[in-house]
């Protein structure tokens, strides 16, 4: 389905980004990985997912908090594969504290990485997508792009912001073959959330398993984590022909969280 296309997934060395990269590679897209930490393992996973289709995988380690590095990554991706057809803005970080205790430098970092980076990648990717009259921009927002939780001011502000950016991107491309949509997961058991599970286990003096149940019980009626694989399938749907006229949605996959 995506043979001959190239997908750039920010923050794809672990978690949701890696799940989406694997799902798109399975459909035949070449992949540009990005993110921190060990790269050989994630690269091997994506190569294995796309092996049947002869998928190629490149990597750029740009820090999504730095505009100049993002520009370098976009040029690198175009140099490797011709152009970026599918842009997945996924890199994100979290910090949990009340507003009066929130370190201003954490606020700036979260807004830069979780929101402003998507403005830069989108503005740099759109010209080639529009010239080809085909493209997909998929923003990994969060259920926190739709509703708020206490202690997460910067994250909730950034995620509401990226849902807004998604809608504007969708309107500006509405008469073209480029679509822009957001995915809004509830809890997904990645490194980002394990830190919050650990904090809960310590706070209540309970086991890892009990802390997971407490976390889910507060917000997610299904009492189940969404998986990176499930989110990868939703991203693949947006890239399929059935997604041609899906524009500007913020699609939650949240076990009923936002339905309450
Ligand atoms: P994760 O920590 O497993 O992965 C984050 C990825 O982003 C990693 O590859 C990391 O190296 C990369 N990254 C972090 N800072 C970066 C930077 N400055 N520049 C480039 N890459 C950077 O987290 P995850 O849970 O997979 O989160 C991915 C996205 O999904 C985030 O935007 C997050 O807000 C969102 N999300 C996560 C959940 C959840 O429950 N885990 C729920 C809703 C939304």
From TrEMBL:
Q: Which InterPro entries match?
A: 3-OHbutyrate_DH, NAD(P)-bd_dom_sf, SDR, SDR_fam
Taxonomically, the superkingdom here is: Bacteria
Q: Where are the transmembrane segments?
A: none
Q: Which GO terms describe its molecular function?
A: 3-hydroxybutyrate dehydrogenase activity
**PROSITE patterns per the UniProt record, alphabetical:** PROKAR_LIPOPROTEIN
Q: Which family is it part of?
A: Belongs to the short-chain dehydrogenases/reductases (SDR) family.
User: What name has this protein been given in UniProt?
Assistant: 3-hydroxybutyrate dehydrogenase
């Amino acid at each position: 389905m995506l043979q001959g296309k190239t997908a750039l997934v920010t923050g794809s060395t672990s978690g949701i980004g890696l799940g989406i990269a694997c799902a798109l590679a399975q459909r035949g897209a070449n992949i540009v990985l990005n993110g921190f930490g060990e790269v050989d393992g994630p690269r091997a996973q994506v190569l294995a997912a796309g092996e049947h289709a002869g998928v190629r995988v490149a990597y750029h380690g740009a820090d999504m908090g730095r505009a100049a590095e993002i520009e370098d990554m976009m040029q690198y991706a175009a140099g490797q594969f011709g152009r970026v057809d599918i842009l997945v803005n996924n890199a994100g970080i979290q910090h949990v504290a009340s507003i009066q205790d929130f370190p201003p430098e954490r606020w700036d970092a979260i807004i830069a990485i979780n929101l402003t980076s998507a403005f830069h990648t989108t503005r740099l990717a759109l010209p080639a997508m529009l010239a080809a009259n085909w493209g997909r921009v998929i923003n990994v927002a969060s259920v926190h792009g739709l509703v708020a939780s206490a202690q997460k001011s910067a994250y909730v502000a950034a995620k509401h912001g990226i849902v807004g950016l998604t809608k504007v991107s969708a309107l500006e491309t509405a008469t073209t073959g480029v679509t822009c949509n957001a995915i809004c997961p509830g809890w997904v058991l990645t490194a980002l959330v394990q830190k919050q599970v650990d904090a809960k286990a310590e706070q209540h003096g309970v086991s890892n398993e009990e802390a997971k149940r407490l976390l889910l019980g507060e917000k997610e009626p299904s009492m189940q984590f969404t998986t990176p694989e499930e989110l990868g399938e939703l991203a693949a749907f947006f890239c399929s022909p059935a997604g041609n006229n899906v524009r500007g949605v913020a699609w939650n996959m949240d076990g009923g969280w936002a339905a309450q």
